[in-house]
Each structure stands twice: as C-alpha cells, then as structure tokens.
Amino acid sequence: MGMQSQDIIRRSATNGLTPLPQARSHEQEVAKLIDVSLCTGCKGCQVACSEWNDLRDEVGHNVGVYDNPADLTPETWTVIRFDEREDEAGKLEWLLRKEGCMHCAEPGCLKACPSPGAILQFANGIVDFQSEQCIGCGYCVAGCPFDIPRISKKDNRAYKCTLCADRVAVGQEPACVKTCPTGAISFGSKAEMKDLAATRVEELKGRGHNGAGLYDPAGVGGTHVMYVLTHADQPSLYHRLPDDPHISPVVRGWKEWLKPVGALGFIATLAGAFAHYMGVGANTTDETPPAEPEKELEDAGQGPNDNGRDA
Amino acid sequence: MDNSNLVLRTKLIDRLFHWSMVSCFMLVALSGLSWFFPSLNWLGYVLGPPQLARVLHPFLGIAVFTLLMCMFVRFVHHNLFVRTDLTWFKHIMEVLLNKHGQKLQIGKYNAGQKILFWGIMSLISLLFVSGLMIWRAYFAALFPVPVLRLALLAHSVAGLALILLVIGHIYMGIWVRGSIGGMISGYVSRAWARQHHDRWYEEEIAPTKPLPSKRHG
Ligand code: HEM
Ligand code: SF4
Ligand code: SF4
Asked: Out of A10-14, A192-196, B204-208, which region has the weakest mean confidence (pLDDT)?
C-alpha cells in the first residue's frame, strides 16, 4: 500500500473505539453498472482485467461450457458466466453475467476477517484486500455471501476484484469498463448509475422484458457493482446470483454475539477465581499427624509447612 | 529422596505428556485468541508474525490433540464416574469453602476433576474435527461454505470453552497447595493424599505401606 489512504470507513479486525483516517471522507460513492442484456460474452473485460492487474492465470481446460476459466481463481478476478435456460414458452435463453466482487456496503468478507487491516472499505464504496496484511486463513471466503474471494496456493493470500481502486483513485474508470465493446459496463457515481439503470430498465420493459430491474441488494446494504437484469425477479437464474444476499446469521453469531459473550466469560472466570482466592485463601494441607520428616518435605518442593501463612 | 512421607501420584510418562501438551496448548490458545479478539492481536506474536502463526496453529493443535489422546488412554480408567462421586457433589459448597471435615470418598480424581477430564476430551475432539475442516491450506475447499461457517463457529465456541475450562483448572492447581509441585515431581505427601483423595489413599496407598522406593515412571 504505497499510496496514503485517508478515506477509510471500515477496517477488518479493528474495534470502533479509535477512529479511522477519514479526512477525505467527503468522497462520492462510486458504482459499476453491468447491463447483462448488452453483454455478448466476448470476455474482453476478463482480458482487460488480467492486463491491467498484471494477472496471468494458467490456461485452463474446456469443461463443456463457455465459462473459461471455469471459476474465479486467485488470478482471475472476473469471469463471464453462461447459463442456458428454457423459458415458459420453451424458447432458449442464454443468460450471461460478469461475475466478480460486488463491493458490498456491508461486506461479509470484512466482518469475518481476523487480520487487522487486511480488508479495507473506502468512502467511495470500494472494498479492497491489503494482501500484505492477509494471513491466508480464508475466513473471508466463509464471510462473503457471493462466494468471491479465492486464496492463492502460491502465497497463501486472498485475492479478488479491486474495482481497479488504483485507477479510480486517479479519476479513471475500471479497466473492464474501458474495454467493453458493447457498452454493457458503465461506471460513475452510484446515484448516476442508478439513474442510468432506471432508463435501461424502462427500455427493457418496453421491449417486453417485464421482469427487468436493478440488482442492488438491500440485504448487504446495496452494492457498488450493480446489475441490470432482464429477470430481476429471479436473480438466481444468473449462475446462482443470490436472490436475497446477506451476511449469514452464523457469521453474525460468531463475530457479533460470541465475541462479547466470550469476553464476559473471561472476565467472569478470572474475577471469580480471584474473588474465591481472596475469600477462601489457599487450600493447604496440615502435615502434623505423621510428625517426623519435615526436612525432606522442603526438599521435595512441597509447600505444606507454610500452612496458614499465605492464606 | 527416600521419604516415607511422599507417595507417587503421577508417573514420569504421564507428567511428560501433561507438560508437553501444556506447552503446545499455550501457543495454540494464544494464537487462536489473537484471531478471535482482534484487540488482543499481539497475543499471536508468541508464534511469530501473523502469517507464520496461522501456519503453525493447526500443526500445534494436532500435537495438543495427539498428546491429549495419549493422556485419555492413560487416565480414563480413573475418570469413570462412580457412585461415591455423588457424595462430592452433595458437599460441593464445603469443598469450595475449604471446610474439610468428613471423608468424601474421593478416588484418584474427584468428581469436579472428572468433569474437567471429559470436558477437555470432548472439546479437543470438536476442535480437532472443526479445525481440520476450516484448515484452508488442506481441507477447507472440500466443504461447502455454509458448512465452513458452522465449523468456524463451532471451533470458536469450543476453543473459548476449552480455554476457560483450563483457566479454571490452573486456578484449582494454584489454590490446592502441593498439586502443581505434585504434577512436576510426581510426588505428593501422604497428608495431601489423605486430605484430597481419601478413598484413593485408603485403597491404593495405605495398603502398600512399606513403599518408600524412589521409582519414577
Ligand atoms: C488446542 C486446542 C485449540 C484451540 C484452543 C484452538 C483455538 C482456536 C481459535 C480461538 C481460533 C480462532 C477462531 C476465530 O477467529 O474465531 C482458531 C482458529 C483455527 N484453528 Fe484452532 N484451536 C485448537 C485446535 C486446533 C486444531 C487441532 C486444529 C487443526 C487440526 C486447528 C485449526 C485451526 C484453524 C485452521 C484455524 C483458522 C486459522 C488458521 O488457518 O490457522 N485448531 N483456533
Ligand atoms: S484470508 Fe486474508 S483477507 Fe481473507 S479473512 Fe483471512 S486474513 Fe482476511
Ligand atoms: S462480494 Fe464478497 S468479497 Fe466482495 S465486498 Fe461483498 S462480501 Fe466482500
């Protein structure tokens, strides 16, 4: 992290008692809008992502579908998903979706991460992994409702889309946005992107896509990567995009509930032990009956002859 | 140390199991706590930088589990519950208030120690299984994410519970004078044995009267 960050709104494994650097927190929230109806599946965005971020994943194998690589990896931060489906009228539909980190307003990855500062959320909405702080535990994998982070076998660090934080910081759009030849990906302030989405949804509805809508799920506080979906009423058609993503209650229980309960448990146990000792005193043994061999007792490191002294 | 007043309570092999397990446990527990309570992050540095601690914790955890399983085999027959344990439970207040009067028919381990034994053994088993499941480097990829979440929660709950139990265990060692020394040297005094484990003393120690040999282990 060579660049100064003075606009951090959340930092993993950091308690809220001390404020984060926020001198520049007037920043505008940004968003990437992906219009799946305009995507042709050319994978230009995948290439642009690899090129800008200097990622060179291994060439994979064809697994019978167009998805290639077959999944996100530590070196592939975005993948176009190709799902076929037959609609009610028996007509074939090809549903494409550019998969990658959603840059959640309430990121489950950040909530789960145990390493201070390994995940940061900036005032502009970007959620970025700081790889040099990452310990490779993989908790972010369990925390994320979208199954996005991947842990590298080479260096045991977590990786995912950065929303081109480095480009955005200097006023550029993400590499995928710049490359997309059909204009399916747009970038701007979150408010602008919602306006643009509203226009697109109207157009799609006018063309008979009654289910069209914006995917900006409230369960995670909204996202800074949003979709215009032709079937916004059934997001899960698009390669298991969650219908109602939210941080799992198990993760909340672990991070929000168990932590204070555990702290109380420690305080109660330590205080209880100390109070017991103060009230009852040491539990010593009266060694008088056998009478003779006090000397050896001392040699053997027994403390019974200080009977009563430390109580 | 030819001393007719001392009796062997714990053999060398068992003391070695116990203290090597304790050494590993401390490192595992402190690094685990450093992830559970991020404000206590510094505890993790007992195992070096955080990345190294993350690598070592599971291996040391397996060492703790293995040593505890050895102890299980060695100790389990002393820790089966018997009818006289009820007497101890009935008099728990006097025990805690250190009012020793009547004999409580306590065997080699008292009922509280037996609960500790079974608590430790079941929690370490849960930690072992859940720990393997969440071990990113080797096994985590074999489990679906919702299962991993449950394993993480289980691992944290069991880790906390075990650490709290062990704090109680350490306190009892400090409170009952002579017991820590006994676990180090192996020997306790006859009076100690009679006071804290009367039935063990009467059944196992008193009948073997002429015993003061210095056989360790
Ligand atoms: C001695 C008993 C053990 C204790 C007290 C303990 C405690 C803990 C705690 C408190 C955490 C942090 C959980 C959180 O952040 O909520 C943790 C993490 C973890 N534990 Fe354990 N644990 C023990 C044994 C084991 C064993 C036997 C294994 C593996 C076989 C294991 C593997 C892990 C793994 C993989 C993690 C996640 C971090 C990492 O990748 O190292 N633990 N443990
Ligand atoms: S793998 Fe890295 S980023 Fe993910 S939770 Fe662990 S420390 Fe945080
Ligand atoms: S999609 Fe997953 S990895 Fe991305 S910000 Fe949300 S929780 Fe984190």
From this structure: B204-208
CB contact under 8 A, B178 and A281: no
Number of domains in chain A: 3
Distance CA A83, CA A67 (A): 9
CATH code for the domain of A26: 3.30.70.20
Query: How many Cα neighbours within 13 Å face the side chain of A237?
Result: 19
ipTM of the complex: 0.91
B68: number of Cβ within 10 Å: 22
Query: Do A59 and A100 contact (CB within 8 A), yes or no?
Result: no
By most ligand atoms within 8 Å of CB, the mutation choice from A101, A128, A132, A139 for ligand 2 is A139
Range of the domain at A273: 253-278
Q: Tokens in use for B113?
A: 């120690």
Q: Is A147 left (phi over 0), alpha (psi -120 to 50) or beta?
A: left
CATH of B3-208, one of 3.40.50.300, 1.20.950.20, 3.20.20.370, 1.10.10.10: 1.20.950.20
pTM equals 0.90
- Of B39, B182, B169, B161, the C-alpha closest to B113 is B169
Please give the full DSSP string across B24-55, using - where no structure is assigned.
HHHHHHHHHHHHHSGGGGGGGGGGSSHHHHHH
What residues line ligand 3, using a CB cutoff of 6 Å? A 101-104, 107-109, 127, 144, 146, 148-149, 160
Task: Identify which of A262, A270, A289 has the shortest CB distance to residue B191.
Answer: A289
Q: Are residues A127 and A272 in the same domain?
A: no
User: Helix, strand, or coil here: A297?
Assistant: helix
Domain boundaries defined on chain B: 3-208
Q: How far apart are CA A19 and CA A41, in angstroms?
A: 44
**Known catalytic residue: B169?**
yes
pLDDT of residue B207: 77
Asked if the Cβ–Cβ distance from B41 to A135 is below 8 Å, we say: no
Nearest residue on chain A to B193, alpha-carbon basis: A285
Contact B34, B48 (CB under 8 A): no
Report the residue of B106, B153, B166 to disrupt the A interface, i.e. the one with the largest count of A CBs within 10 Å.
Answer: B153
What pLDDT does residue A267 have? 98
A8, A122 contact by CB (below 8 A):
yes
User: In testing the pocket of ligand 3, which one of A102, A216, A241, A247 has its CB within 8 Å of the most ligand atoms?
Assistant: A102
pLDDT at position A3: 60
* Residues having CB within 6 Å of any atom of ligand 1: A 114, 137; B 25, 28-29, 32-33, 35-36, 54, 57-58, 61-62, 64-65, 124, 127-128, 131-132, 134-136, 155-156, 159, 162-163
Nearest CA to CA, how far is B146 from chain A (Å)?
Answer: 7
Region B154-158: mean pLDDT is 98
Mean pLDDT, range A1-11, rounded to an integer: 76
